Amino acid sequence: MRSQTQRRVFLVAMAGLAAFLVWGMAGLPRFGTFAGAYSQFLNAHAVAQRAATNVVAAITFDYRGFDTMGEEFILFAAVVGVAILLRTQRDEEERSPTEEAEGRHAPAASNAVRALGLAMVGPIVVFGVYVVAHGHLSPGGGFQGGVVLATGALLVYLSGEYVTLRRVRPEHLIDAAESAGAGGYVAIGVLGLAMTGSFLENVLPLGRPGALLSAGIILPINAAVGLEVAAGFVLLLSEFLEQTLVLQPRGGGTP
Amino acid sequence: MIGHLPQLVAVWLFAVGLYGIVTSRNLVHMVICLSVAQSSTYVLLLSIGFRAGGTAPIFLDVPVGTRAVDPVVKALALTDVVVGATVTALLLALAVQAHKRHGTLDPEEFRSLRG
Amino acid sequence: MPLLPPLPVALPLLVAALLVAAGPFVRRRVADLTAIATAGATTVLTALLLARAADHPLVHWFSGWTPRGGLVLGIDFAVDVAGAALATLCGVLMTAALVFTWRYFEAVGTLFHALMLVFLAAVLGFCLTGDLFNLFVFFELLSVAAYALAGYRAEDPGTLQGTLNFAVTNSVGGILVLSGVALLYGRSGSLNLAEIGRTLERGPADGLVVVAFVLLLAGFFVKAAVVPFHFWLADAYAVAPAPVCILLAGVVSELGLYAAVRVYWTVFAGVLAPHAAGLRGVLLGAAALTALLGALMCYLQQHLARLLAFATVSHVGLTLAGIALLQPDGLAGALLYLVADGLVKAALFVCVGVVQFRFDTVDERALHGRGRGLPVTFGLLLLGGLALAGLPPFGTFLGKALMEDAAGRAGHPWVAWLFVVASAVSAAAVLRAGLHVFAGWGPPAGAWRPGPGGPDGSAAPAPGGSASSRPHATMVAPAAALLLVALALGLAPGLSARAHAAAVRFSDQRAYAAAVLDGATGPAGASAERAGPAVQPSGTLPPAALTVALAVALAAVPARRPHTRGRRRKAALHGVLHATLALRRLHSGQVGDSIAWLVAGTAGLGALLTAVLR
C-alpha cells in the first residue's frame, strides 16, 4: 500500500478500535474499587500460608510459580536468540577488542567517571545480591536483583574497562550460570513433583515470616532466577558490545 | 469517564505505539514504539488492580490485614515487563544486523519480500 | 493427582538448559542425538497422556494449590483428549524436524537444538494448560523461540525483513491477548478458564465481555493467520530454515485456532450462547474469506515456501469453517482435519527442504525440470498434494467429510462447495509445482509470463547443500513417516466416533468446569448421549473425488499467456490480471502494512461481533 493510503486506513481503523476498547473498558469496576476474591484471599492469607511478607513474591514464585518458570525461559530463549542473531558470520572475523567503535570520536571517559564507576561496581553487586536474597521479605526478588547485578558489568563498560573485563570474563562460565539458573528452576519443580506429587510444591521448611531463611523454596528459586537474569543480561550486553567493538568484516576495513 | 481515566491512558498508549510502528522509517524507532504499545498493557493491568487508599501488598512493616492493592496484577505486570524487554532485545539485535547488512535502518528499503 | 502432565513440559526445558551449558564442549552429533531423543521421549509422554485422558480429563494443580473453599489459588493443567492429541502431534512434528536437521544443516551449534526444545516445551504447555494467563505466557514463549528460530540465517537480507514482520505482528497479537486477559480478570477476579467461565455465565454479555472476546479472538487469529491477520505468514515461511518451517506450518497455525476454540468453549460459550447464530455467521464469513484468498494467493506463487504458506492460510480457513459451526460435529471434523492437515503440510515442507538443500533455491521457475533426479521426493510431494485435496483414505478426507456433513445438517450446504474450491486450488498449486520442478512439465524457464516483480525466489541458501549431494535418507524419511501417519489416521477404525466423543466433551462447558473445579471424574457418557451418536461420512465421496479431479485438472493448466480472441474476453482477462496483481501488491512484506491490516481486522471483527452479540 502506498503510505498515504496506509496511513488513512490505519487512522480510521484505529479510531474505531479505540472507541471499541473504551466502550469495553467502561464495563470495568471504577478505578480504585476492585474487589476480586482471589486477590483479597491472598492479601489476607499468603503471609500465614507461606511465611513470605512480600505477597507479590509469594504469588510470583509460589502460587503462580509455574508462570514464572515460563517467563524465565522467555528470557533464556531471547538471550539464546540474540546470541544466534549476532553470532560471527562467515564474512566477519574478530579483531583485537577496542574500547571504542571505529569511526566514533567520543571523548574518552574522564578520570572521575572511571574511578567512580569502578568504585561503584562492588556496592552494586552487593546491593544486587541483597535484593535477590530479600525478595520474599521486601520489594525485590530474582528479576529485579538480577538486573541490578547485570548493571555492574555495564558500569565496567562505562568506565572504559571493557577490554579488561573481556579478558577476565570467563564466557563459558556465564553461559553455564545462565543454564544453571534456568535448569535449577525446573529441577526444583521436579523435586516437588517427586516428593509430593505436585510440580513446584513448596517442600522446604517455611520458617517464621520476616526471617531471612523463610518461605520455603521461594528463596532458592529467587537465587536461581537472579543468577539466570544476571547472566542473561551480561550475555546480552556482551553480544551487543562485540558487534561494534570486536567484529569487523573479513580482511579489515570499517564495519 | 473519570473513573476509567487510567484505562483511557492505556488505550492512548496503544494507539500511539501502533501509529509509530505503522509510519516508522527507522527500525530502532519502530522497536521502541512496540515497547510503548506494550506499556499500555502494564497501565491497564495495574489500573485494574488499584484499590483506593491501599498500600503495597508487602506486610513486613505493616500488619497483615492493612488495606492493600491487588497483588496478582503486580505479578502479571512483572511477567509482562520481562516479555516486553526480551522481545525488544531480540528486535534490536535484528536492527543491528540489518544496519550491518544493508547499511540502512529504513524498513522501506527492505524490498526482497513481495507478492 | 496425576504425575504425568507436567513432565512433557519439564523434560525439554531441562535438556535445553543442559545443552546451552554444555554448548562448546558437545559435538554436533551428540547434540543432534540428545535433541532427537528428548523429542522422542516427550512424544511418548504425550501419547501416554492421550491414552490416560481418554475417559476423563487429567487435572494437575501446580505448587500444590488445589482449589480451597471454592476459590482457585493456583495454576492447573487440564488435559483432555483434544489437548493431548494436539500435544502428541507437536511432539511427532518436532521429532521429524530434528531428524531432518541431522543432514540439513552442515554446521549448527547447540543453540539451535536448545531453542527447538524450548519451543517444544512451550507448545506442549500451551496445549495442556487450563489457566488463561499461563496460556498467554506459553503463547509468548513459543513466539519468542519462533522469532529466534526464524531468524537463524541472519546473514541473508530477506531474513531480517521476514523475521521483523513476523516478530512485530505477533507481538502486537500478544498485546491484544493480554488486554483481553486483563479485561476478563477485571470482571471475574480470576485467571482460571473454568472459573472465569462460571463467573461470566452468571452475568450479562455486556460491552466488556464482547470486547474481551474480540481481543482474544483477534490475538489468536494473528497466530492462526486468519485473513486479514495473515500478512506476516508468507514472509516468515520464506525466510525460516526448512526445519523451522515444518514446525511453523504444522504447529503454530493449528495452535492459534486451538486457543481460540478452547477459550470460547471454556469461558464464553455459556454467556454468548443466546447469540450463537450471529457468531456462527461472522466466523463462517471469516473462514470463507481466509480459505478463498489463501487458495488464490497460493495458486499465484512461484516461490515454493510462500506457496505452502498460503496453502496453510487457506486450510486454516477451512478448519475455521468447521469450528464456526459451534457444534460438536463440526468441531470433531475440525480437530481431525487439523491434525491430519498439519502432518501433510509438514511432510510437504520436508520435500521443499530437500529441494532447497539440493539446489539452493525454491523458485519454481529456476528449478524447472532440475528435480528429475529425486524420484522419491517427487512421489512424496505428489502424494502430499493429493492428500491436501482430501484424497481418501487420508485423514484429511475424513476430517473434511465430517465438517461438510456437519455444515449440511446445520443449514449451510455451501460450505461443502467452499471446501471443494479451496482444497482443489491449493492442491493444484502444489501438484503444479511438483510437476514443473520434478518432471519438467510446463514451459521451460525463461518462457514464463512475467510476474509482478515478485521475490527473486532464491530463498536463503541451505547452509549445507552442494550440487552433487543426494538427499540422505534422514532427510526424506520424515516426510514419508508423516504421510504414513496421516494415512493411518484416515484408516484407523472408530476414529470419527472417538473424535466426536472428544468434541462433545470439549464443547461441554459445565463438564469442564466440574472436572477442573469440583474434581468430578465421571466419564462423558451422559453428555455424549445427549449430543447424539457420531455420523459416518458416507455420502461425501463424490465431493472428495470432485476435489481431487479438479486439483489434477488445474495443475495441468499450462502457464502460458492464453491467446484470447475478442475484445470482451481480452478486457475480462485484463481485469482479472489487474485484480490479482493488486492482491499480490498488497502483500508487500512491509511491517507497517501488516499492522495496519491487523488493526483494521480487529476493528472490523469488533464491529461485526458487536452487531450480532447485543
Any descriptors?
heterotrimer, A: 255 residues, 2 strands, C: 23 helices, 1% strand
Which helices and strands appear, and what pairs or packs with what?
The complex is a heterotrimer of chains A (255), B (115) and C (614).
Chain A: H1 3-25, H2 37-50, H3 55-63, H4 65-85, E1 92-94, H5 111-133, H6 142-158, H7 162-168, H8 171-196, H9 218-245, E2 247-249
Helix pairs in contact in A: 2-3, 3-4, 4-8, 4-9, 5-6, 6-9, 8-9
Chain B: H1 5-22, H2 27-49, H3 71-102
Chain C: H1 7-22, H2 28-52, E1 58-61, E2 76-79, H3 81-104, H4 110-128, H5 132-150, H6 157-188, H7 193-202, H8 207-224, H9 233-239, H10 242-272, H11 276-300, H12 304-324, H13 328-359, H14 375-389, H15 395-409, H16 414-439, H17 473-491, H18 495-506, H19 509-517, H20 525-531, H21 541-555, H22 567-586, H23 591-613
Antiparallel strand pairs in C: 1-2
Structure explained in plain terms:
The complex is a heterotrimer of chains A (255), B (115) and C (614). Chain A is mainly α. Chain A has one domain. Chain A is built from 9 helices and 2 strands. Chain A has a two-stranded antiparallel sheet with strand order 1-2. In chain A, helix 3 crosses helix 4 and helix 8 runs antiparallel to helix 9. Chain A is globular and about 60 Å long. Chain A starts with a helix and ends in a 6-residue tail after the last strand. The model of chain A has no long low-confidence stretch (mean pLDDT 85). With 115 residues, chain B is an all-alpha fold. Chain B has a single domain, classed as Helix Hairpins (Orthogonal Bundle), CATH 1.10.287.3510. Chain B is 63% helix and 0% strand. In chain B, helix 1 packs antiparallel against helix 2. The longest helix of chain B is centred in the C-terminal third of the chain and has 32 residues. The radius of gyration of chain B is 19 Å and the shape is elongated. Chain C is globular, with a radius of gyration of 23 Å. Chain C has one domain. Chain C has 614 residues and is mostly helical. About 5% of the residues of chain C have low confidence. In chain C, helix 9 crosses helix 12, helix 11 runs antiparallel to helix 23 and helix 12 packs antiparallel against helix 16. Classes of the chains: A mainly alpha (255), B mainly alpha (115), C mainly alpha (614). Chains in contact: A-B, A-C, B-C. The interface between B and C is large, with 40 and 53 residues.
